[in-house]
Design brief:
The complex is a heterodimer of chains A (about 450) and B (about 170).
Chain A: H1 6-14, H2 20-32, H3 34-51, H4 63-95, E1 99-105, E2 108-112, E3 117-119, E4 126-127, E5 130-134, E6 140-145, E7 150-161, E8 168-180, E9 189-192, E10 196-209, E11 213-227, E12 233-237, E13 240-245, E14 255-256, E15 264-265, H5 268-271, E16 272-274, E17 276-279, H6 280-293, H7 302-311, E18 318-321, E19 323-326, E20 331-338, E21 354-361, E22 365-374, E23 382-390, E24 393-400, E25 417-425, E26 433-440
Parallel strand pairs in A: 8-9
Antiparallel strand pairs in A: 1-4, 1-6, 2-3, 2-5, 5-7, 6-7, 7-8, 8-10, 9-10, 10-11, 11-12, 11-13, 13-14, 15-26, 16-20, 17-18, 18-26, 19-20, 20-25, 21-24, 21-26, 22-23, 22-25
Helix pairs in contact in A: 1-3, 2-3, 6-7
Chain B: H1 3-26, H2 32-49, H3 59-77, H4 86-98, H5 100-116, H6 119-130, H7 135-142, H8 146-172
The chains are: A alpha+beta (about 450), B mainly alpha (about 170).
Chain lengths: ~450, ~170
């Protein structure tokens, strides 16, 4: 019998797309190999529960209707939990591998697998299976594993730890840096996203993922990546990166990381991580509507004025409007841009460089301009920020990189690699919008 | 028990435990239409033998004996299709019997794990399992290839499985 990927064949069998030959091989494996038998039973049971009556326990159509069932169950279980709590805690902390949150910035939430959720403001909490979220563009959290490996999520990111030792991770969205100590080849660290599955034996790498694509940049060691769309695999070596998209439109391949750049201009439409992108055509129409309402132009001239105005703005321009994000204390109006997702080269923040930020506010406002940046080792990621008070109307700010400091003013951003750029205001009436963002050299 | 009373009681038991029977079949015969047919066939056999059923004994255990035979009969006559071998099904049945507690736990914890799924994944499960869209229909609906939908289903079931196992381990601790 051929060596098979049983998980894949079982899945195909459950979905009715396995071949006769594959199912014959599966049958033989079930008969002779206990591990395949148990794997099959676990997978088939999940399928069976999902496939039974919508009125039954597996229903997901109306989640709200299910909650009472879940609550009832937990109420019954609560009594058992109380009795077992002390021994549970002892066993847990002594026997389970430890995953500790070692660094926290901004709004970070931890949700245990039983649904209990809490904001975490200080490092030191031990966690196991559950979901870690950094909630705002300027927040981050670092997990340290028992073997010394670290994983940091930054910006709006959502990471699930699928098992207790944290060695199976699922990044739903966001940015992750990992520094993974050498793993046993029989038990590598696995990182899944919506479009790729990665196997890590010991390395440093960055991952940027959302629903439609995953980009991995390997800085040291190597990472095996399987694209979900077609099961194609690639090994990404140090100094290379690759991108796995939801559709397998082209062969999966790795590309060398080019040398660092010291300048960068954001492509607002495609680099936006948080905020609402509005193209210039829409902005002009809104503006035209206001001008007509105010009597500044006649309705009959609107078409011509629109064409004239459109001819005077660069193609593809527009603005990112800040959108609200709630942290533990307040609502802030954020927009943010990824400097990694579409950049072909790492972007270094040099001492002589400066950011040029253009935009508009509707009322006099205090705004914060910040960057997420890290050293090459990924051991020292940080948020560096400056604040400015600006008058209503358009603004054009020049922010020297050497003015960007951490909140405690101890460290600057000079010499670090840029990951993202963010802007926020605490004032909703400011209607903060960014129309251009650029890192300029001397 | 009179005929009418007996019929009512049989119908009640059948409705009450239908999902248990379906799940039992689906682990050996994953196709839902086939599984429904098998349970239907078995219901007829059960009704014929219901007079002999000792009401002091658990109904499910009694019925599963018949269902087991019905599953094996179906597999014997379907070997030209991509179905598990009869022997493999028998081995699975034995294993299930030994791991009854585990399968019950999976059922129980899956509810909670489903709630943990992101919105889009819930929508895919909803479409595939409950609204009974085909993979092709889902691919059209989400403007994806069929392969991507299969992969997504695989990933979702895999996440659910890991979530369930995590919960079971946590409770065992």
């Amino acid at each position: 019998m051929k060596e098979r990927n049983w998980e894949s064949i079982i899945t195909k069998h459950l979905d009715g797309v396995a071949t006769i030959e594959e199912v014959a091989d599966l049958s033989k494996a079930i008969e002779s190999d206990e591990s395949v038998r148990l794997l099959y039973l676990r997978m088939a049971r999940v399928h069976a529960v999902l496939a039974t009556s919508p009125n039954d326990v597996g229903r997901v159509v109306s989640i709200d209707e299910e909650r009472p069932i879940s609550r009832r169950w937990w109420m019954q279980a609560a009594a058992v939990f109380v009795v077992l709590l002390a021994s549970f805690a002892m066993v847990w902390f002594e026997a389970s591998p430890q995953v500790v949150i070692t660094d926290i910035n901004g709004a970070v939430r931890w949700t245990r697998i039983d649904g209990e959720s809490r904001y975490i403001s200080t490092p030191g909490s031990s966690v196991s299976a559950g979901t870690l979220e950094s909630m705002t563009p300027d927040s981050s959290a670092t997990l340290k594993f028992e073997d010394g490996s670290t994983v940091t999520i930054s910006g709006r990111s959502n990471l699930m730890l699928l098992n207790e030792d944290g060695k199976i991770l699922s990044l739903r969205e966001g940015l992750l840096f990992a520094s993974v100590e050498p793993q046993r080849s029989s038990k590598p660290l696995r990182l899944n996203t919506s479009t790729a599955e990665m196997t890590v034996l010991g390395t440093r790498f960055d991952v940027i993922a959302d629903d439609s694509q995953t980009q991995i940049i390997v800085n040291e060691g190597r990472v095996g990546l399987q694209r979900i769309a077609d099961d194609s695999t690639v090994e990404v070596q140090a100094g290379y990166h690759t991108k796995a998209t939801l559709e397998a439109l082209s062969p999966l391949q790795t590309m060398a990381i080019s040398g660092p750049a010291r300048t960068w201009k954001a492509d607002l439409e495609h680099d936006v991580d948080h905020g609402r992108w509005v193209p210039v055509e829409i902005l002009l129409r809104i503006e035209l509507g206001r001008d007509i309402d105010a009597g500044r132009i006649q309705e009959k001239d609107a078409r011509q004025v629109y064409a004239e105005r459109l001819a005077n703005v660069p193609e593809g321009s527009g603005a990112i409007f800040a959108e609200p994000v709630r942290n533990q204390r307040e609502t802030l109006y954020f927009s943010s841009l990824s400097a990694k997702r579409n950049a072909l080269r790492p972007i270094l923040l040099s001492a002589e460089a400066r950011f040029r930020i253009q935009g508009k506010v509707s009322s006099p406002s205090g705004i914060a301009i910040g960057v997420v940046a890290s050293d090459v080792e990924r051991s020292n990621a940080g948020r560096f920020v400056v604040r400015r008070r600006i008058d209503a109307g358009g603004f054009d700010l020049q922010i020297p990189v050497n003015e960007l400091k951490e909140e405690n003013f101890l460290r600057g951003a000079v010499g670090l690699e840029l990951f993202s750029l963010y802007f926020y205001s605490a004032e909703s009436e400011s209607e903060l919008r960014i129309t251009s963002a650029e890192l300029m050299g001397n | 028990m009179g005929h009418k009373t007996s019929h009512n009681e049989f119908a009640r038991l059948l409705v009450e435990h239908r999902s248990v029977f379906l799940r039992y079949v689906l682990t050996k015969v994953p196709n839902r239409a086939d599984a429904h047919d098998i349970v239907q066939e078995c219901s007829v056999a059960l009704w014929r033998k219901f007079e002999a059923y000792d009401t002091s004994q658990p109904f499910v255990a009694w019925a599963l004996g018949f269902l087991r035979l019905e599953v094996l009969k179906f597999l014997k006559k379907s070997q030209k299709r991509a179905q598990l071998s009869v022997h493999a099904a028998e081995v699975l049945m034995e294993e299930e019997q030994c791991n009854e507690q585990l399968t019950n736990s999976i059922d129980k914890h899956l509810v909670h794990c489903l709630e943990e799924l992101p919105e889009q994944q819930r929508a895919i499960i909803d479409g595939y399992y409950y609204r009974e869209f085909s993979v092709k229909e889902l691919a059209t609906k989400y403007q994806r290839t069929e392969q991507v939908i299969y992969k997504k289903l695989q990933r979702i079931r895999s996440s659910l499985q890991l979530c369930v196992e995590g919960q079971i381990r946590m409770l065992r601790s």
